[in-house]
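Appendix B. One record, verbatim.
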Amino acid sequence: TDTHTDTHTDTQQVHAAAGLEGEVYVGGKANWNEAVTYLKLSAGFHENHAHMMLGYHYMFKLESSQYLSSDTSRSSKYAKNSENTLEHSWNVLQNSSATAEELDKLFRYSNDLQTVLPRMQNEYCHLAARHYSKAAEETLQMIQQSGADQHLEPTRLDNLELEAESGHISVHDPEVVQYYEDMANDGQLDAQVALGELYFFGDAERGVQRDYAQARRFFEQAAAQGDPIAQNTLALMYTQGLGVEQNNTMAQKYFEAAAVKGHTDALNGLGYIHLHGLGVPVNETKAFEYFRSAAGLGHAEACSNLGVLYLHGVGTKVNKTLALHYFSIAAQHNHTAAIFSLATLYLNGEGVPRNCQKALPLLKTVAERGSGLEVMNEAFRRFQAGDHEGSLLMYWFAAEMGYSIAQTNVAFIRAQGLAGKVRCQGTFDDSPCIRGMYSRAAAQGDAMALKKLADMYYYGSDSTAVDAAMSLALYLAAAKQGDPEAYFSAAYMFEHGVGTRVDLDRSLLLYESLMNRSEEWGMAVWFPPFLASTRLKLSRFYGSLRNRLYGYPFDIFMLVVLVIQVVAVLTRIFWSLNNRRHADQPDLHRDLTE
């Protein structure tokens, strides 16, 4: 820490030392005031991880203030102490080992909502947005350098356990590649395209390294047969000089050939080369038309490009409302640059009322697609290698940056008893730490975390008392996020009046909603709610019929019918056994009859 005040110390050493010091306070001493001091110093030198941690820190403060604002019944009593109450709530929420009594007390606090809380919420939101913006800008730079907008979801360790239980095994036959090559050499178009993509992207699982020269060979064969995918990919290769000498003229030729067939990537590519003058004179109007054509066919990047043109008036008049519209469409398709542009519009109030709280989750989404993913990937590699303690520490670091999947993975490792010598807030007691991590992920809307917390309140644990009403609320929240098990659990609780009054209508609605989404989740999800809903409908029908036929007399009648049926079945079984016992000789006619 002495290097922090040495003005001659190398910048890299300073921000590395500051970041490490901040991480120590986060993971070890759990002193956020000290941690933030060092993380701010590290962020001053543009350390991306520090920006992520600070963004999450202030976002959590914002959320804690919103929890406080949910209860206005005691606002007058606590108005004078609202600042202290908020700081107390922050400390409690950050402390994953907080007791149930502390959490209960926290949610009973209230503040003067007309004065203190709105100001503090606005301040925390803008502080979080400022740090997430810095991290998001670095993410966009990484995407521009790599030339690919890749946002793969980090691995959930719970999902690995489910895959192992299902017995699913991936088969990668090395002879498949040779089989496709034989087909491609015989002129099979699909095989040529498939091999071109295989060599263009590479496939480590099949032992195929990226080979642009081989990709070009197969794409040229397919392009000669008029395949638009091959033509568009060849255009990209000539644009960027991948496996070929960079040639804008050839790129334009292949883009135009694919665009004639309505290939949206090619239309977007033509817009790009006309916008930047690659092999053709700069023509912003033509670029605008090409982007608009591709956007009309639902191309995400074209929508993002069109939004930029509308925002700055390039090739068209400035129209921030349309810019917002096209950025929103591209963001729905997970286009990272569009999500960042949309967040910026909300943050600055361009084409839409200024709204920091809408911008913040968008900025966090972009920031989490940056260098923090490297931490998550390294944590997963260590877990696969059996280094569970090292994996836990890496996931914990990512959890403090706000990655909800990292938070659930920390909870998973500790729940499986794999934490080893890694303490949680100075103790080896896993229960409060598990609940704390799931709580933090649940606060971000993580469906799995919501379901896990619901299970904890339903069954109870060492650190969690049984609370059926809380469990139901969490199951409903998880169901809203699309978790099928949460749907079923909530329906069951409404059917049997667990944590709420019996509500058969709502139970049936949840069962049927789960059945209707079976195409999304698979037929295995359809069968249990089908049986449950059928049983419920039959039970309701029986109850209705019983009421119409005057109650108990009908019950007696049905009981008599049931007894007669049982007696008939037992009699049939008895005579069948008796006949076989007395059959000394085989009887062909009798056997055929039986």
